[in-house]
Amino acid sequence: MASKGDLTRARLAESMLDLIQTNGYSGTGLNAVIEHASAPKGSIYFHFPDGKEGMGVAAIELAAQQFEALITAAVAASGDPGTAARTVIESLVAIVGESDFRLGCPVSVVTLEMGAENERLRQACATAFKSWITPTADLFEANGLATEAARDLATVVVSTIEGAVIVSRATRSTQPLHAAANVVTELIAHRINTAKETR
């Protein structure tokens, strides 16, 4: 069972994640995190001695875990990789649309804001993207693609989804995500069918 301290730390990370999605990393202040988390003022530096940067890393790690869980659930519920990809994108359509385009991917937000300025945050973002690409590549490889081809396709799929989320928020339309779902599904099916035909 988690201790009170562990629960407070988790609540701070969750609040940081929520605020990054709506306000960006630079626009998220420590006082806002404390208020959002309903946490004692001294709790931030107790749980995150490195302050905002440490909370940013924790928030990115949390986002990585949440999206990886979404991928895992989609794969478990779907009969094929293309359907799994569409399921993931449809989940993102709901998140982005129902938030009135205020929510997106916090990892891409931090990458764009801080990737060139803070190596620790950049590395956390790179690790997050890797945690999504790797299981996707494993799925493609299990369906007949060679290791390198599976990795390339997984990288393209994750990158396409990330880009579609950004364009959807900018245009205040889920059409880019729906378009990504159609193209990604077709691409996955084509690559896997081609691999099966050449075996």
Q: Rg from C-alpha positions? A: 18 Å
Count all strands and give the number: 0
Mean pLDDT: 93
Secondary-structure-derived class:
mainly alpha
In helices, the fraction of residues equals over 70%
Order of H and E elements: HHHHHHHHH
Please, how many helices?
9
Instruction: List low-confidence stretches.
Output: none
User: Sheet bearing the most strands, described?
Assistant: none
Which strand-content bin applies to the residues? under 5%
Judging from the principal axes of the Cα atoms, what is the shape?
Answer: elongated
How far the N terminus sits from the C terminus, by CA atoms, comes to: 50 Å
Description:
The chain has about 200 residues and is mostly helical. Helix content is about 80%, strand content about 0%. It has nine helices and no strands. α5 (about 80-100) packs parallel to α8, α6 (about 105-115) packs across α7 (about 120-140) and α8 (about 145-170) packs antiparallel against α9 (about 175-195). The protein is elongated, with a radius of gyration of 18 Å. The mean pLDDT is about 95.
